[in-house]
Amino acid sequence: MLRGLYTAAAGMLAEQRRHQIVTNNVANLNTPGFKQSNAVLRSFPEMLIHAVGGNAVPAARPIGRLNTAVIAEENLHVWAQGDLEETGRPLDFALVSDIPVDGVRFGAYGIGVDETGARVFQPQAFFAVRNADGELRLTRNGRFVAGTGGRLTTPEGFEVLGRDGRPIVLPPGADVSQWRVTPDGRFVDASGAPVTGPDGVELALGLYVAEDPHALVREGDGVFRWEGDAALLRLLDGPEPGVEVRQGYLERSNVDAAQAMVELVAALRAFEANQKVVQAYDRSLEKAVNEVGRV
Length: 295
Fold this sequence. Notes:
By secondary structure, this protein is of the alpha+beta class. It has two domains: 2-78 and 255-294, no CATH class; 84-251, no CATH class. Helix content is 22%, strand content 24%. The chain is built from three helices and 19 strands. Strands 7, 8, 11, 14, 15, 16 and 17 form a seven-stranded antiparallel β-sheet that branches. Strands 1-2 form a two-stranded antiparallel ribbon. A two-stranded antiparallel sheet has the order 3-19. A hairpin with a 5-residue loop joins β7 and β8 (136-139). The longest helix is centred in the last third of the chain and has 34 residues, at 257-290.
């Protein structure tokens, strides 16, 4: 009897996690560059019941499968490109990332299969920023502002890094409305000449490509932390096929509002169903303790 109680309780926890993820998606509908997340629910390993009961699988002919619980195993990001919204601001940038891999077609999660049957991830491009602790972070939110001392920052205060890995500093008194940014992220003036910072270095947005974007961990303020192999994160030093910077645009969130609301209701209903199962077991246990014990 308790096995069913634990199964229902595990279902409640899984649906609670699912509800939290979808709620976060809805809360970021208007966050530029935000990537939707989906919870992946999986049944608890079916053979574990045999491992707990003994060291060998029963020799009797199986009569069916038994799933003892469900768990929210992982949280997958949807890397589909968001729509571009024109803002006209010279320091707003949208990043178009559709890096091709020969012979592989990718789904919304950026996962495909090559001709050998091996799983392949679609690389994704990001802007490079530095947080308050001086650590590298990646983002698709290209809404930048000119901060103290001409430093280019995000609205949250993260420094925007250049192609040389250092913070981008705008020249004193610069009229950024007269600049344009090339598709590979270089700043040029009205004549097409490169723009240099106070140190004489040509200004260019730092762009990183994550070969396995599923190794990224989401943090607050629309940024990601890299947790994968350092060799799979590379800094671009020039044009990259499938990567383009658009000045005066922002990439909108790729969250589907209608689908998110449907998932919210579905998670709530599933949670309530598991809750009723727990209540039913509670009543059964109450009878077993208070009534059956008297006989």
